[in-house]
């Protein structure tokens, strides 16, 4: 199979869909891999590295899309890429369709086969291709939150770890999944007081077992959320509904209950955000302020640490890329139930329930 690795075009997205090591494995299995020139430079991988691994370098993104049976990316196609996607082409990347009707419409019209990293799901309910980026984003959420709590960044002027004689900062984490656990680990390591809310008692029991005593758990409901947002300095949104839009757990009116300079980092922004006032931002312009509350909602947070993120992503995507390349998407998804759940759109038809529920009837007029 011919496989294309284009350069990402999303704002400040320095990750790339495949490392040279991944390209080496694909070429070893007899596949042809085309890499757009400088696609990996932001992650520390150069054209010469890909050439040594057996990759073929093409100058433009149009050439890569034009010659490839399968495109392997990191982020969803941007508007400037919509017209490059071809009928029957496999696009394997993070899509997060439920948060973008224009993207969904464009991929329906393209007649491509769209397989989303974020909905590939193992038998135990884990999301193997989302997990490493959730780990990165969860850890980064505390780094970024700590930075924007500083007064020059319009935060409350709180040091999360405190100092002797001064109480540590307080971190509220919504969601006890991968993002929540990694954020809690980082915040606890800094010495902050951490509260995690979730509706899954099994996860809360797990966190109670593995986290230090200054990480406490409570059941998530509106009463408890309203209680904690009044005195916590940093709020992390880490709620995920597989392939669907995230619920708004913090509404616009709740912002007035927070102290000025409170920071919200909404990691769920790719799925629409779990805060009503969330809107996607970029690494160039990462924050905005509403009712004196600082919002950080960069939609590609792991793109700020591209070497770590690209290696971590290739580690988990490569086995699936090999299956798709060796067997074709129909046979590969038939033989692998986890990969089958990654199918979101096939030849202009939505096949994933979460997307159908997110848009209901709004996009179906675009079907052929």
From TrEMBL:
EC number of the protein: 1.4.1.1
- PROSITE patterns the UniProt entry points to: ALADH_PNT_1, ALADH_PNT_2
Q: Does the keyword Glycoprotein apply?
A: no
Question: InterPro entries under this entry?
Answer: Ala_DH, Ala_DH/PNT_CS2, AlaDH/PNT_CS1, AlaDH/PNT_N, AlaDH/PNT_NAD(H)-bd, NAD(P)-bd_dom_sf
Which top-rank group of organisms is this from? Bacteria
Binding, NAD(+): 134, 198, 203, 220, 239-240, 267-270, 279, 298-301
Task: Give the Pfam families listed for this entry.
Answer: AlaDh_PNT_C, AlaDh_PNT_N
Swiss-Prot/TrEMBL keywords: NAD, Nucleotide-binding, Oxidoreductase
UniProt similarity note = Belongs to the AlaDH/PNT family.
- Which named protein is this? Alanine dehydrogenase
- Source organism of this protein record: Zobellia amurskyensis
